[in-house]
């Protein structure tokens, strides 16, 4: 759905019990979306696996300015590592 929607600039999916499977699907759509600027995924059940899928999508998407991931299932080490890999991830 995201790959076809070129009007939506902000998507808030906070506290929706999203897990890695759902985030990986979102990431696939982000690879082809050129409108979305902010994606809010805070307080879900995302692990490093889902974050890695988002990082891969961000490599192909320069439109996204922020991906909110606070309150997910990352260890302190993973949080630090993810923050260093892309400043658009807000952890």
TrEMBL record:
The GO biological-process annotations, alphabetized, read as:
nucleocytoplasmic transport
Sorted alphabetically, which InterPro entries does this protein's record hold?
A: Leu-rich_rpt, LRR_dom_sf, RanGap
Q: Which domain of life is it from?
A: Eukaryota
Taken from the record, one Pfam family name reads LRR_6
GO MF entry, a single one:
GTPase activator activity
Alphabetically ordered keywords of this record: GTPase activation, Leucine-rich repeat, Repeat
> Gene Ontology cellular component?
cytosol; nucleus; perinuclear region of cytoplasm
Q: Membrane spanning segments where? A: none
**Protein name (database record):** Nucleotide binding oligomerization domain containing 2
Natural source organism: Molossus molossus (Pallas' mastiff bat)
- Taxonomic lineage: Eukaryota, Metazoa, Chordata, Craniata, Vertebrata
């Amino acid at each position: 759905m995201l790959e076809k929607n070129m009007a939506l600039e902000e998507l808030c999916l906070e506290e929706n019990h999203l897990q890695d499977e759902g985030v990986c699907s979102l990431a696939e759509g982000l690879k082809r979306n050129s409108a979305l600027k902010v994606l809010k995924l805070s307080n879900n059940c995302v692990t490093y696996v889902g974050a890695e899928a988002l990082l891969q999508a961000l490599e192909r998407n320069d439109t996204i300015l922020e991906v909110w991931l606070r309150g997910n299932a990352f260890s302190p080490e993973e949080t630090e590592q993810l923050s260093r890999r892309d400043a658009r991830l807000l952890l």
